[in-house]
Amino acid sequence: xTSFSRPLIWLVCMTLMSAVTxxxxxxxxxxxxxxxxxxxxxxxxxRSELDLATKGIIDRxxxxxxxxxxxxxxxxxxxxxxxxxxxxLQRAFQTGIRISDTDIDQSLLQLAQQNNLTLTQMRQVxxxxxxxxxxxxxxxxxxxxxxxxxxxxxxxxxxxxDTEIDILLASDRFHGGEYNISHIxxxxxEGATPQQIAEQESKANNVHQQLLEGLDFxxxxxxxxxxxxxxxxxxxxxxxxxxxxxxxxxxxxxLRGGQFTVPIRSQAxxxxxxxxxxxxxxxxxxxxxxxxxIMIEINELVAARDAMAEVRDIHQKLKDGEDFEVLARxxxxxxxxxxxxxxxxxxxxxxxxxxxxxxxxxxxxxxISEPFxxxxxxxxxxxxxxxxxxxxEAAMRNAARANLQQxxxxxxxxxxxxxxxDEAFVEIRLPS
Length: 432
Description:
Blueprint: H1 8-18, E1 36-40, E2 43-46, H2 47-63, H3 71-94, H4 101-114, H5 119-128, H6 133-155, H7 162-170, E3 178-187, H8 194-212, H9 217-224, E4 235-240, H10 246-252, E5 264-265, E6 269-279, E7 285-297, H11 304-319, H12 324-331, E8 343-347, H13 354-361, E9 372-373, E10 377-390, H14 392-423, E11 426-428
Antiparallel strand pairs: 1-2, 1-11, 3-4, 3-6, 5-6, 7-8, 7-10, 9-10
């Protein structure tokens, strides 16, 4: 299966929660001489880096109550992740990607806010977990670099067309539910020989047999999978049948929670997919307002004070009984609605900004607001109605576009990372 990319903030949160450090080695507290466990082009990965990263993964697995795989298999997976990460950082630097201190500061602030902490509190949490905050900050910068590199790959994709969306919407597969899935990939190198294919197929069948005999799927993924989600127990998350390749969708569509497929062959290798949970696609309803308004624009010729005075004069006329529609035609600077007597039609609450949304939410049908200001000018608004609208069709179309984009993104990123890994000089020095 192709890779399943994670948003930057998710990856950052995982870094915070697990305290996994992928940067240069910390100063050793013992006198043990460090050793090299991998050469990666012109760079190296040290034993101390691998130990620290492995410890972070072990701590997370234990916190989640999972089963630990054998140490040598876990180290192999962690080292592979370190290698791919190091290659991404090298490529990002070579292609001119740079992260400023300001970028990192903004990301740290966002992370702290998402955890309902101040920056000082977050630093205390990180240091209480035994991690150096300076290294944590460096990890954030490195993660931002790799994310920007992947984004460059994604930006080079062809856009999703309306025809592709129409074809997807017309298919039976799109109208099913959503599956929470996990995944094991026994990967094949590019241009694999028949012998390599046979060896990896045998390995996939062996893993499948162990799963049938009761091996925990997450533990198997950590031990054997070559996918980017391996160290997360293979967890991909919620997907519908259209955001995964057809070969996989046909295999999982009749499965329910706890069931998994036989090994499935693709260009990337042999896959075993587990369905963790299933949910139906539900109807989507949205609130809409109907309103009309009068706007006095603020610009180079009309100062904010003058616009305020004009709108107050109009508001007084409305209070004196003059017709809203007539006043809108005569005075409103909103060219899209003035000729309609200020009628804005039906629209989503957030369509015209937070200030208008808050004003409408506080009103009843037939109410006329007091004058209020936004970035565009001064406004008077009349609420004409509110309704709940079935927007399932629009939501389905948006979902179809997102699914097609996700599928293309997964393929592009996986191919990019695999090619980068295949082309690099990598020498692994772990014991056999």
